[in-house]
Amino acid sequence: MNNRRLGATAAISAMLLVTACGGGDDASADGTTKVSVTTFGCEIWNTWATSKGIYAKHGLEVELVRSGGGSAAVAAVLSGAADFGYVNGYTAINAYNTGFPIQMVSGANVNALPPAAPAQGVFVGKDSPITAPADLAGKKIAVNEANGINQIVTASWLKANGVEPESVSFVALPFAEQIPAVLGGRVDAAQLGYSLLGDHNDSVRSLADPFVASEKVYIATYVASKSFVADGDAAERFHEALKETTEQLEDPANTDESFQLLSECQKVPAETLAAQPQNALEPSLDMASLDRMSQQMVDLKLIQEKPDLGPFVAEFARS
């Protein structure tokens, strides 16, 4: 892979992407703590927790703040622009390893593992001659972010299948452009979720779900500054709210309503959302899985050695 070292300064340069105010255990007159949480848009757990008053039940008044990605989320919590940053596990580990004073305070979701249907894929054109990982050597693969979670997982999958990641060119493209780029011949494959295929389901096929080769991967976690975590119990209450939210979302009796709420947020038919393969919700953090993710980063030469994750992962958030 080119530019192997993750860009530690990316988080700093991204600070201006998030502008809402946050920080501190800011309690209102009724004892509710006001917190700001970065979001990529319409996470199912946020739509449910907000609609059902779960955050309020745990004494939190949550303001959702759009961010440009994981690095921007880390920058937001470091600058005080947000209290909780929504970020994938690899970016969070890298930021901590770089020396940023953050802690991981909750998980959100992990990749779907068998026997669940795969939620991700390495997609090629339906009539492409590429049929196996070995056929991707020397080819171009679209991912949404250079050295981001999709590139890391795909590189690990290639390596596990005897293909050196250095032999592949990863091309950063927005999700919406990836399948058109595959069909137009600008790249040979694309790694993204089934839910992002749009109207192209019948035009492509998946070689495999690369996340399975990595076992459990924390696709979404939340981090906060160490000072915020130490200043009161808002971080622990936020984690407990996500645990309660997950329990309710995993109840089959709530499935239809949860997708209806998500539909209203995303402006996509509920039946379409419900038919898409889903990643698994997991708010509690498994240290063994995070350690394995760190080892992947070492193997891919993204970091020099595995950091001690003990101080990084809050005790209350561990499984």
Helix and strand element order: HEEHHEHEHEEEHEHEEHEHHHHEH
The number of distinct structural domains comes to: 2
CATH architecture annotation name of the largest domain: 3-Layer(aba) Sandwich
Q: Quick one: CATH class of the largest domain?
A: Alpha Beta
For the termini, the CA-CA separation is: 33 Å
Given as residue ranges, the uncertain stretches (5+ residues, pLDDT < 50) are 1-23
Could you tell me the number of beta strands?
A: 12
Largest sheet properties:
5 strands, mixed
Biggest sheet: strands side by side, in what order? 8-7-9-6-10
Q: What structural class results from the helix and strand content?
A: alpha/beta
Overall pLDDT: 90
Strand content: 15-25%
Radius of gyration: 19 Å
Q: What is the count of DSSP helices, taking H or I runs of 4+ residues?
A: 13
As a percent range, the share of helical residues equals: 25-40%
Question: At the third CATH level, what is the topology name of the largest domain?
Answer: D-Maltodextrin-Binding Protein, domain 2
Shape summary: globular
**What would CATH call the homologous superfamily of the largest domain?**
Periplasmic binding protein-like II
Question: Can you tell me about this structure?
Answer:
This protein has 319 residues and is an alpha/beta fold. It has 2 domains: 8-111 and 217-317, Periplasmic binding protein-like II (D-Maltodextrin-Binding Protein, domain 2); 120-213, Periplasmic binding protein-like II (D-Maltodextrin-Binding Protein, domain 2), CATH 3.40.190.10. The chain has 13 helices and 12 strands. Strands 8-7-9-6-10 form a 5-stranded mixed sheet, with helices on both faces. A 4-stranded antiparallel sheet has the order 4-11-5-12. Helix 6 links the parallel strand 7 (140-143) and strand 8 (169-172). Helix 2 (44-51) packs across helix 11. It is globular and about 65 Å long.
